[in-house]
Amino acid sequence: MRRSANERTSLDAKGQDHTRAVQEAHNAPVQQQNNVVTSLTQYLLHNVDGMTFNTRLASRDIGTRGCKGQDHCQFATFDEARLHCNSITACTGVLQENEESSDKCLGGFGCFFLGAGQLHFDQKWIFSTGKTFERQLLQYMHLQDGRKFSEMFQVGTRNCPGVKYCQFQQLHPALAFCDLDRKCMGVMKMKASGNHSCDGEKGCYMPAKGDVQHDPLWLSQSGETYMKQQEVAYTLRTQEGNVYDGRYPRGTSGCEGVHNCQFQSLAAAEIYCNAVPTCKGVLEHMPQPDGNPACTGGLGCFEPCKGKLKYNAMFMVTEGKLYERRIVR
Fold first, then answer.
1. Closest Cα partner for 89 from 19, 31, 194?
2. In this predicted structure, what is the pLDDT of residue 62?
3. For the chain, what is the largest distance between any 2 Cα atoms, rounded to a whole number of angstroms?
4. Cβ distance 94 to 43 under 8 Å?
5. Residue 6 to residues 91, 184, 195, 297: CA-CA distances in angstroms?
6. What stretch of H or E contains 175?
7. Is 0.85 topped by the overall pTM?
8. What is the DSSP letter of 265?
9. Radius of gyration, CA atoms only, the chain
10. Residue 141's closest CA among 186, 176, 105, 103?
């Protein structure tokens, strides 16, 4: 899909701004990636649904390491593009152009491009028969700070063993169970008493779901939590007035805000959301004409959200935006 010189310049600038914002956001204390237990990166093919990325990374962008291309990073094979994307924080996936419709893909450098920014619907992308591969990173963080989940899975769920709830003797089978369940928020490990392996000798590792809770008793019992964290490309929803009805109170996982968690940039809010398994996306509030351009208290216009998707007429009137975190497994 060809773009004009002005469009390419605009997209290059957006890509550089997004990369800088992501790198700065990764320096925030709440997002330190310590104690990662396991991680898996996969690429989800959007099969002719018109979804594509609103930005492409240029060879002169931060972190692209001098990749070749006429205007943007281009690769001859998907594997080359995938490996390069995995090494760049701002890369959200890979775009494959149709060779026949794009003069052997802009100068013959290759038909695979690095995507960035948000997913959005583009009718032209369907007609071009291009393909979008969305990068999804799944990992678990090991926590011993009193955080736990409110519910566990009943024994027998997907044939899991246990006495009353699903239990596993080892960590990785429990994580594998959680990997494939959208409701699973992580795994909780009870401390075994003496030589016993927890309830009924069935194992101490329990996949869990529900809300994240701070439980002093869980902390005093040396309970451990492996919290699922998933990084995906966010989708900018059309402005139909639907919005998630839950927010995270100020101070949750160290966030700043007047009442709710607020961030100065979308990239910082997305990184926070990726680390919270109950987060459904990010809301962008539009500043009032006579108000602070950084919204409430000057602390930022971007708020991570949770809860249920509901229609909100005021959100429609104020032209707010919803960047949705759609996790597909």
1. 19
2. 57
3. 70
4. yes
5. 22, 45, 69, 36
6. helix 171-179
7. no
8. S
9. 22
10. 186
The pLDDT of residue 17: 43
Q: Please count the helices (runs of H) and the strands (runs of E) in the chain.
A: 7, 15
**Pairwise CA distance, residues 285 & 95, whole Å:** 30
pLDDT for 140: 93
Q: Which structure tokens are listed for 192?
A: 């075994």
The ranges of the chain with pLDDT < 70 are 1-34, 61-66, 99-104, 106, 193-197, 328-329
DSSP SS3 for 123:
helix
Q: Which distant-in-sequence residues (6+ apart) come within 8 Å of 314 by Cβ?
A: none
Q: Which amino acid is at 98?
A: N
Separation between Cα atoms, residue 262 and residue 48, nearest integer Å: 35
Domain extents in the chain:
5-139, 145-222, 234-324
Per-residue confidence (pLDDT) for residue 10, from 0 to 100: 37
- Contact between 247 and 272 under an 8 Å Cβ cutoff? The reply is no
Distance CA 188, CA 203 (A): 11
